[in-house]
Specification:
Layout: H1 9-37, H2 46-113, E1 120-131, E2 136-146, E3 154-166, E4 169-175, E5 186-189, E6 192-200, E7 205-216, E8 219-227
Antiparallel strand pairs: 1-2, 2-6, 3-4, 3-5, 3-7, 7-8
Helix pairs in contact: 1-2
Length: 228
């Protein structure tokens, strides 16, 4: 197995600059040789001609190697930038996943500590983040049930209420607005469940607060709000 020494991209960039300088030097030599060969310098001797030809041959070899290295360096730079971007994105995703798992663990520990005391449905750790480009809020939370409900499947309807500033006025928006019993917003679970999704937001509105509500038979059984 071979070990490849890592060279930072900025050193590769410096190498490319040096290689370009070699290319320019070769161009100058060839131009000068052309001038002399065409008769601009008639003091050229046969020995000088031979020396120049040898020099050109050497420079051509160096240029060939330099071009290969430059092309490889450029390719490596592109690959390294792409790799760094991908790794950065993966790290951010892992950090977000790790944070979510820590939150889940804290909730589970809390549920275990109060298992014999609490009864009913609860929302835990509601988070919301604005995606301004897509004009939507990304939300996530945990929902759990305690007591006798734990032995059977629980179904609840999910709805949101947003407090916003729009056109200089305070505005309230309910989501979903038209069909709150839509299957997309029915949550089924037995013990607990992580819930994630998006809420559309008007492009000209500034969201101040998001409240998540869980209802059964038209009655609110759990709710939690978060300020943005």
């Amino acid at each position: 197995m071979s070990v490849r020494t890592h060279v930072p991209w900025y050193w590769r960039g410096a190498a490319i600059v040096v290689l370009l300088a070699i290319s320019l030097a070769l161009a100058g030599w060839i131009y000068d040789l052309g001038r002399r060969y065409a008769g601009f310098d008639r003091t050229l001797t046969e020995q000088e001609m031979v020396g120049l030809k040898e020099r050109v041959a050497v420079l051509e070899g160096e240029l060939s190697k330099a071009s290969a290295i430059a092309n490889a360096s450029e390719s490596n730079l592109s690959i390294e930038r792409t790799t760094v971007q991908q790794l950065t994105q993966q790290v951010r995703q892992l950090e977000a996943t790790n944070a979510a798992l820590k939150e889940d663990l804290a909730v589970f520990e809390s549920l275990a500590a109060t298992e014999d005391k609490g009864v009913g449905i609860s929302i835990h750790q509601l988070h919301a983040e604005l995606d301004a480009t897509a004009h939507q809020l990304r939300y996530r939370f945990l929902v759990s049930t305690q007591g006798a409900r734990r032995e059977k499947e629980t179904k609840v309807h999910l709805a949101f209420q947003l407090q916003m500033q729009q056109g200089g006025k305070a505005v309230m928006m309910n989501f979903p607005a038209l069909n709150p019993s839509d299957g997309k917003f029915i949550i089924s679970f037995k013990h607990f469940r992580r819930v994630e999704g998006v809420v559309p937001v008007p492009a000209d509105a500034r969201v101040l607060k998001l409240e998540a509500k869980l209802t059964q038979d038209g009655s609110v059984v759990a709710s939690q709000a978060v300020n943005l």
